[in-house]
Design brief:
Layout: H1 2-16, H2 25-28, E1 36-41, E2 50-54, H3 57-65, H4 71-76, E3 79-84, H5 88-102, E4 117-122, E5 125-130, E6 142-146, H6 149-163, H7 182-185, H8 199-211, E7 224-229, E8 234-240, E9 243-248, H9 266-277, E10 283-285
Antiparallel strand pairs: 1-2, 1-3, 4-5, 4-6, 7-8, 7-10, 8-9
Helix pairs in contact: 5-9
């Protein structure tokens, strides 16, 4: 409670002393009404303060300048830079890439996650596996992308509660042979642990629930170019194993980017999997 009070007090004080950042006006005139990524820089050339993206850079940056809750970041900012893209997809991919590489001070999301994990069925039991140990781009029957083991197990428990699955059969708690689990007596478990329902029926409900979060394997043999047409330009986004390698304007330039060793990227997967699997974007094999 004390921490919350202190936090609210600091936020109030930041808002109370907010002043429009006049020192940033020289950087505003050049901001375009185009999609792309923008960066608020501080005194350090190596550590940006904040990186964001928008379909309209100028409009989004102007909204930052009028936001009292961002007074602390704005006071530390010394300049604003930007990179335009053909459209929203390019902005999303570039933002995620830049945040991972540059680690800006005020960005909380999209940072590289070394604990990224998923659920994998092993002998009909879900187990937590980690992206640093398993190739998520090519391993079938992976489900969910979680920030850490705790998040994965919490989601598994949520599925078990919704589908009346047995914690014991899922490996979430000990199970005594020939005896039902405690939750079965409370009718919170369908009873596969004590013969009230078949293990097969239990497994079918588990698979049906996990199907909604199945991780799609990379469907191409190598890198591909995803074409995005904008108002004033075309970009070809080079992707391999759901990892964004960069963007080019001509397919002949793609070879220089494909030398990077590809590895699974959760942000790239979340951005790209639905539009690519749905065939909504033109794709060129490389």
């Amino acid at each position: 409670m004390v921490k919350k009070i202190v936090s609210h007090r600091l936020e109030f004080e930041a808002a109370a002393i907010y002043q429009y950042p006049e020192h940033l006006r020289p950087w505003i005139d050049d901001l375009p009404n185009l999609p792309g990524v923008y960066t608020f820089h501080g005194e350090s050339d190596n550590l940006p303060l904040y990186i964001g993206k928008s379909v309209n850079i100028r409009s989004r940056v102007m909204s930052h300048l009028r936001t009292a809750d961002e007074a602390k970041m704005l006071r530390q900012s010394t300049r604003i830079s930007f990179i335009t893209t053909a459209g929203e997809l390019g902005a999303l991919l570039l933002e995620a890439q830049m945040i991972k590489i540059q680690q800006p001070l005020f960005n909380k999301r999209l940072r590289k996650n070394r604990q990224l994990c998923a659920l994998q069925l092993v002998n009909q039991r879900p187990q937590v596996v980690y992206a640093k140990e398993v190739d998520f781009s090519h391993t079938p029957n992976l489900f969910g992308l979680y920030a850490n083991r705790r998040a994965a197990l919490q989601h598994l428990q949520k599925i078990a509660d919704e589908q009346q699955l047995c914690y014991g059969l899922l490996g979430m708690e000990p199970l005594t042979a020939g005896r039902g689990c405690f939750r079965s007596a409370l009718r919170r478990c369908g009873g596969a642990c004590c013969g009230k329902e078949s293990v097969e029926a239990h497994q079918q409900r588990l698979l049906a629930a996990l199907e909604a979060v199945r991780v799609q394997c990379w469907p191409w043999r190598r890198a591909v170019g995803v074409i995005e047409e904008g108002v004033d330009r075309k970009q070809i986004h080079i992707i391999n194993n759901w990892l964004y390698l960069g963007s080019v304007s001509d397919i002949a330039e793609a070879a220089s980017l494909c030398t990077t060793l590809p590895g699974f990227d959760s942000d790239g997967y979340k951005i790209l999997s639905k539009p690519l699997m749905a065939g909504k974007l033109p794709i060129v094999s490389l």
